[in-house]
Amino acid sequence: MSKIIVLSASAHQNLVEIAQKRGHNIRVIDPDNLYLMLSDSNGHDRIYEKTDRIALKDVDAIIPRIGKNLNYGLAVVNHFVNNLGIYSTSSADGLRTASDKFWTSQKLSEARIKIPKTIFAKKPDHVDFLIDKVGGLPAVAKTLTGSQGAGVSIFETPLSANTTMQTFYKLDADVHLQQYLEAKGKDIRAIVIDDQVIVAMERTANKGDFRANLGAGGSGRKIDLTEAVKDMAIRAAQSVGLGSFAGVDLVRANDTTYCIEINGNPGTKVIDITGVNYNENLIDMVEKYTGKKGNESGSKANFLSKAGSYLSEKVFGNKSQTPPPPSKRNELAQRFDREFSHYASNQWYAKEYPQIKQAFLDFWGEELEKGEETFMNIESCFFEHNLIMFRMDLKKQGLKFFDKY
């Protein structure tokens, strides 16, 4: 059984019911009602719900579903993950990037994912030049934040473009200008969870509106995606750091698929329309990464202990690997302690620290000699608490151990 906190100002009743039916202890907390405390003693940071402390033993995972007051909500996510070592279904950095339309576009372009031509401007006083760079009129203007179609408008004439851009300029507002894609009022919302497309929905705009968002009055239907488009959606979510959970918006135009936005807090209407309840997949992911199935006892300490013990005994499956010689082992042990001994005083790691250290020295000895990158990987193992990064490294070497827990 996992103890789960949903960070949201909304009830998320369906998610709560699913988790409870599967034997988990779950509750919803508005992040605005939490106090974050940083201690003057290492490893003693805390978090309070109003005046009641949330003890680490009372939470295994958080599911951020933050809609309002995003900056404070992200501080709460960071505190749970980085300061308290709690697993989260979404990263604060990923949520922050997805909340900004231009940051998202930058990340997508960096990852070589097809996007519309885009211009970002602080002082849009060369209107004709900017419009020309995104392919001319019509063009789409967006505010940097907003969801459900809010803050999105279309420039169809030079007059509307100049008038609106002058308003942006006078208000000292940033402008996110994009190429208009003729998609016949349709787009696609794909839900990505744990690096997989769970369900996809085609959305159609109301007559007279180019925005297909359901929140703007559009309609939807379930569709199947090709493997190529699924891969694009997954890579898009991963590009902003939300391969764990995101809504990816795609548009098909000119025989090409474009990614237009990523939503770190996707709505639930897709569940009603498609009949696919992705909340089940969210709970699957929590169980996978906390090592706790519903109605089963366990703890993070037990999970880490099993991981350390298994690695100490099994040596990457059936492959043998020569441990470093005693002299080098002592040198590596000393460096390991210099880098990571502060974790030994952390209440979650103290018991498992010797086992994890033993496993790394026995079977990562050769890797440890290769330089700083490996030590950064080890830091990530501790930092993510449930060895998420470690799991990824092991999978590259073909180890199936983590699939058992």
Keywords, separated by commas or semicolons:
16 strands; 15 helices; Dna Ligase, domain 1; 405 residues; alpha+beta; Rossmann fold; 39% helix; five-stranded antiparallel β-sheet; four-stranded parallel β-sheet; 20% strand; 4 domains; D-amino Acid Aminotransferase, Chain A, domain 1; single chain
Write structural notes for this entry:
The protein has 405 residues and is of the alpha+beta class. The chain folds into 4 domains: 3-97, Rossmann fold, CATH 3.40.50; 117-179, Dna Ligase, domain 1; 186-288, D-amino Acid Aminotransferase, Chain A, domain 1, CATH 3.30.470; 299-404, no CATH class. The chain has 15 helices and 16 strands. A hairpin with a 2-residue loop joins strand 15 (245-253) and strand 16. It is globular, with a radius of gyration of 24 Å.
